[in-house]
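Handover notes (outgoing to incoming on-call)

Open items:
1. Pyridoxamine 5'-phosphate oxidase family protein: sequence verified, structure written out, both below. Nothing else pending on this one.
2. Nothing else urgent.
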Amino acid sequence: MDPHQIRSLDELESLFDTPGEAAIKKEVDRLVPVYRRLIEASPFFVLATHGAGGLDCSPRGDPAGFVEVLDERRIALPERRGNNRIDSLRNLVEDPRIGLLFLVPGKNETLRVNGRARITTDPTLLERTAMKGKPPQCVIVVEIETVYFQCARALLRAGLWDPDSRTLAERTPSAGEMLAGVPDSGIEAAVYDDGLDERQARTLY
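Pyridoxamine 5'-phosphate oxidase family protein structure tokens:
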């Protein structure tokens, strides 16, 4: 047992200062115009869900503007083709709670959206969120409950947009190497990596 484990809210709160005025006032219950601008400029977000199988956190991306702002309390997220595990979608069928974190390349502030979601195959939404003439398999419509921006400290500490950070990728395994490194996968790294870039480009939509 860890004798230093924090076991109560009182213990936890004693470690931190009281939130500043800005940290409280930045949270709203709808998509105000300044927050809408961040979503419309974002080509990438991370989606968090929860279901009977546990937690899931996965990336989503497309050209900036791919998230359809329906009104100040609703946004639509196209669900493109992927690995067909549909972990996030399975979770949303069981538990509609959803969390989103939007990033804009070069900007250190991020935007957080929390709410409840439903999955739809509404033909109008499928058509509105089509890419290169191909509609998504379905659309996630998020009913917004809270929106606020996250300050820049995390991305600044990470140096996420620093050009020198790109060299970090050179230290990491390829997709094939990661698959081959999973016990009993039976996948050869070189075979999987051969032509991977072309396969992914061909099957984006």
